[in-house]
Amino acid sequence: MVATVAVVVISLGLSTNEARQQRITVPRPLPPESYSRAPDAPFDRSDYVIRINQMSSFYDKPGEFGYAIHGEDYGFERLSFVMTETQPNGGPPLHTHTVEEGHVVLSGRITYLIGDRQVTADGPYIARVPAGVPHTFINAGREPMNVVATFPSRRRDYTEVGPNPLVRGR
Q1: What is d(CA 136, CA 162) in angstroms, rounded to the nearest whole number?
Q2: How many domains does the chain have?
Q3: Which terminus of the chain has fewer CB atoms gathered within 10 Å of its CB, N or C?
């Protein structure tokens, strides 16, 4: 399986007002195993913007790249976040959190398993995941999609329960 990376190319004509944007999709191989990495750059708590290289990064096999922060490390009193790029047929392992979770999805199609309920939704939407309930999802579309997850907690906990049962061809 390969992931795709969208690259924006600016073609300039006689003036910048005539600039055009074109999306080019560049395939890249998916990592063979899951990983979790510390941030590449430090964060100054006096800053208001947290950049990708200041967040921890992860990959969940198959096909979910992500970035995460524990809110207390970045000046938040009661919020933590995860941002993902999830490939088709990709998603996280079945897992739980001690606090509720909210997903913001602007586009794409996701099939969720939350407890014993399975539901498919097309973006844009916000999904609610109750605290303590085993859950996972899969990108049910044909293009990579993004999820922004929010947690009302200074620290984001994560307990893996098992493999993602929604992934086809495991």
Answers
A1: 10
A2: 1
A3: C
